[in-house]
What we know:
By secondary structure, the protein is α+β, with helices and mostly antiparallel strands. It has helices at residues 25-30, 48-75, 101-110, 123-136, 138-152, 258-282, 301-306, 332-349, 366-403, 429-442, 450-456, 460-493, and strands at residues 2-3, 33-34, 115-120, 154-161, 167-173, 177-182, 187-198, 201-208, 212-218, 224-230, 238-242, 286-289, 322-325, 417-421. The strands form 5 sheets. Strands 6-7-8-9-10 form a 5-stranded antiparallel beta sheet. The protein has a 3-stranded antiparallel beta sheet with strand order 5-4-11.
Amino acid sequence: MAYTPDNYPDGKGGRKVSDNPQPESVWHIVDEIDVPTITPMFGKDFPEEWAFMVADLLNLWASKIWRNQLKMRYYNGKNVLKDFGISIPPQLLNVETIVGWPQKAVDTMAVRCRFDGFTANDEETQALLDGVDKRSRLRVKYRQATQSTLIHSCSFATVTMDAYNKSRIDFYDAEHAAARWDDAQGRIAYGMVIDGFRDGQPSEITMYTDNAAVHAWLTAGGWWDWEAQPYRMGRPAMEALVYRPTFKKPFGQSRINRAVMSITDSAVREALRTEISAEFFTSPQKYLLGADKDAFAAKTKWEAYIGNIFAVGRDENGDIPEFGQLSQGSMQPHTDYMRSLAARFSGETNVPISTLGVIHDQPASAEAIYAASEPLIIECEDFNDSARESLKVLASMALAGELDVPVDELSEAQTDFMPDFRNPAMPSVVSQTDAMVKIASVVPGFAGTDVFFEQIGFAEDMRRKAENEIKRNSASFTLANVLNSERLNENGNA
C-alpha cells in the first residue's frame, strides 16, 4: 500500500499537508510512501496524523543515511579503494592512499561563506537579534552548518525557547535530521531532528509541525512515549539551509556529487600506482647473462642490489658473464595523468587548480588570482543569497517566539532586517582600503561608518570598538573646542 492524497490516513478523506491548495507535484516529491519499515508504537492518545509523520520521517532518514555517510567518508578521505585488479599487486592493495580533494572542494568554498550578524533599522529589533546571535553562537555554528550543507546538500536549523522565553537557533546535519517539503508554501511541511540513538537506530526525536514541537522517545518496553510543546509560529519551527536547490530537488545537491567521487576514485588509484612506480623507479632492474644463479644463493635481493662489487667467476666455458641494466621507467605519465585529473576536478567544483597540490604554477598578478577564483566566488555569492533567506526566516521565528506571536503577525519594523555576509572574494586589506578611501573621498560622511569598516574587513567587535572610539574622540574634540571658545571670549571681554 502507498499513501497518496486520496488515502491519506487522517480519517477525513485525504487531508493534505497544508490547508492551502497544492500543485500535484508536491506529491511527486513526497513520492509514494510504502508501508513503513520503521513503525514506532505509540499509545492510543497519540494523533494518527502525527504517527504517520513520525513513521514517514524515520523511513525517509533511513533511506538517505547510507548516501549521507558515503559522502562523509569521501570528505574524511576514508573512501575505499576501487581497484580494477590489473595494475596493482595484491600485496599493495592494503596500502593506505588518501586524496583529500573532496574535503578541499567543501572547505575552499565554506571558508568564503561567512555570516557576519544581522543588521536592523529598529534598535529594539537589533537588540533582540544580537541576543539570538550571541546565545546561539550563530557565527561559529553557521560555519559548521555550511560545511555540512556542502557535504550532504542540506542541513537543518530549529528554533527553540528556553525557560526564560529566550529563543535559540540550533543546526543539525543531514545524518541527524529529515524533513518533507511543501511545494505550495515553499517551505518545510514537517520535519524532525534525532536527539539520541540506541543500537544504531533513532531512539529519541523531536518533530516540528505547524503548531507544535513533538518530543518522542523509545521506552524500555519498546513503546514510544511523547510530549508536545505547542507554539504560535504558524509553520514548523525548522528551516533548511540548502546548496543549489532546484524545483525537482528542493533540498539541493551535494558538492561531493557522483562526478567528484568518480574523479577522486581515479586519483586514489593513480596515487597508489605512482607509489608503486616510484619503488621500481628507485631500483631499476639489473641482469647478468651467462652467470650461474648459484653465485647469488647466499645473498638477499637487497644485498645484491646495494653491493658495489660483483664477484662472479667465469662460466664453464671460460667466458665472463655480461652485466647490464634495463632502462629506467619514467614517472612523467603518472604526473601528466594526475594533472589531468586535477583539471577535471577543478572544472567540476570551480576550485582553483593551483590549490589541489598538483600544479604549482601561481597566477602572475592579483587580477589573475581573482580570475582563477571568480567561478568559485560567484558560486559562494549564489549560496549566500539562498542562505540569507533561510537565516532571515530563522531570525523571524526567533523574534516571533520571544514576542509570542505568529511569524505572519510581526510588524514591518520587526521584519526590516537582513543577515550580513563577508565578501566571498576575500580581498586584501590594502586593495579594499584603497577602494573605500576613494569612495569616501566623493561620498561625504562615508568614512567611519559601519559599512566603511565592514568593507575594509573589520570584524563586528572591531567595528563597534572603532565606532565608539571615534564617537568619544569626536565628543572630546567638540568639548575642547567649546572650552577654548569660551576662554577666548572671556579674554576678549576682559
